[in-house]
Amino acid sequence: MVIKKKYDIIIIGAGVVGTITARELSRYDLDILVIEKGADVCSGTSKANSAIIHAGYAAPMGSLKGELSHRGNKAYLKLCDTLDVPFKRIGSFVAAFDTEQEQTLDALLKNGIDRDIEGIEIITGEEARRLEPGLSDKVRAVLHAPTAGIINPFILTFALYENSRQNAVHYHLGTEVTGITRTKGAVTGVVTASGEYKADFVINAAGVYSDTISEMAGEGGVNLNIVKGEYFVSDIAMGLTTSRIVFPAPSKLSKGILVTPTTDGNILFGPTAHVAESKEDTATTQEGLAEIMEKAPRLFPDINFRGMITQYAGLRAKDKSDDFIIAASKKIKGFINAAGIQSPGLTAAPAIADRLLEIVKEEGLSLKKGETFYPARKGALRIIELSPHEIAAAIKKDPAYGHIVCRCESVSEGEVIDAINEGATTTDGVKFRRRAGSGRCQGGFCGPRVVDILSRELDMPMEAVTKNGGESKILLGRMNKGWHK
Ligand SMILES: Cc1cc2nc3c(=O)[nH]c(=O)nc-3n(C[C@H](O)[C@H](O)[C@H](O)COP(=O)(O)OP(=O)(O)OC[C@H]3O[C@@H](n4cnc5c(N)ncnc54)[C@H](O)[C@@H]3O)c2cc1C
């Protein structure tokens, strides 16, 4: 086995938890490596969720996820401003239809007040309908939390990736950790197909595989139940059903099927909550989608499901403790779990990173500030967001900005090239960075053009371009030259 360079710290997993932790650690004089088995960052649950930065009232008092989500929510405004990430504090509603649900709202309000959540209140159904006219007239009361918001979770994770790389963090993508090496009760590194990487500290941020990684390290103690959540997505042209995040009153299993706008102007309907068949089971099902079509109209009776353009599913990594497991191993020195990061892990991510920094320090890693740290990152140029004047200036600088390849979302060739320069190597990498393929035709028009540009820019045959790495090939081979004659 080839032994590579030694790092101070290795992070397994480049979801939101791995990338934000890498960025926070990059403030210090450390050699950091992030290893991700997906072809790109944001390959796991961080790309398939409700994209909500929760206000922080939902998790029970005393739980780690409750404490960290409340702190995480507060950090987002500054973080997104610094990294130029789309984030809107649009506020959330939890709707009650009967007396029992009104009591649930009272309990959530009490949590919110105990956590000092700004502006949280219960309003009547009539008051709520004045703010959201499409809301069902059967809604009797609503818990209103104005500090809840929506974010673009892909752009967030890509921004953390770009900014941490700018601050000298190394990434190995398309690389699966298959073992963790130890001597005398201490971690010494990780094993991958491309060699062994050495480090005194290993952070497990492997999402639904965080139980497997914890077992590999000899720590164990993570017992995940994988719960799938399916969604419908509406076209941006359908208009907004709601301008706020609207939940039904929660059950013991989940927050229920919600309706929320996205930062790009789509509407999300979902998620369901059913035990997944496997850790790779992200397929949507007829039953799941039927459940959304039955339950979402209880909140908004006039939903037109003919405006739906796509579906997706994400996997919750729920530990049996029903809480996050963020702790240093007491058995294996240097091994640290950020495991069982179920919802609201996206909200909690900035506070999870802070907690992990405290832990590595407590475990003996010296955190000395580095000479330079570049906190900011400039977001992408998006032709669709520019004025005609600005578009003309962009085209003058580079005519590729005048060549529209995705007609549904008005994405130009220049933007696809920018996405590739930022690290996209697959059609999904381009789609999640610039939205080419996210519109009504779902890549029917731009798909072949994006494959062509990826092939040209990355100097690889078109048949080698994939949707998201591995065997997800788009073109299987070249047709016989004489076939069309
Ligand atoms: C349906 C649903 C809705 C949700 N809605 C919200 C919400 O609105 N708000 C909110 O705050 N939270 C929400 N969440 C939770 C949130 O999405 C997650 O908590 C968060 O994304 C977890 O991030 P992560 O980095 O821990 O995991 P992931 O994003 O899954 O990252 C883990 C990474 O580790 C990689 N990996 C795994 N094994 C290995 C290995 N052996 N070697 C190398 N790499 C490996 C994976 O490929 C993956 O990229 C939701 C979750 C779901 C499923």
Task: Give a verbal description of the structure.
It is a single chain. This protein is α+β, with helices and mostly antiparallel strands. It folds into 3 domains: 1-86 and 152-223 and 320-379, FAD/NAD(P)-binding domain (3-Layer(bba) Sandwich); 87-151 and 228-308, D-Amino Acid Oxidase, Chain A, domain 2 (2-Layer Sandwich), CATH 3.30.9.10; 383-464, Orthogonal Bundle (Arc Repressor Mutant, subunit A). Helices cover 30% and strands 23% of the residues. The protein has 12 helices and 22 strands. The strands form 5 sheets. Strands 1, 2, 9, 10, 11, 12, 19 and 20 form an 8-stranded mixed sheet that branches. Helix 1 packs parallel to helix 5 (153-166), helix 1 packs across helix 8 and helix 10 (413-421) packs across helix 12. It is globular and about 65 Å long. The model has no long low-confidence stretch (mean pLDDT 96). The protein binds flavin-adenine dinucleotide. Flavin-adenine dinucleotide is lined by residues 12-18, 35-38, 43-46, 49-52, 54, 176-177, 205-207, 209, 229, 271, 314-316, 341-347.
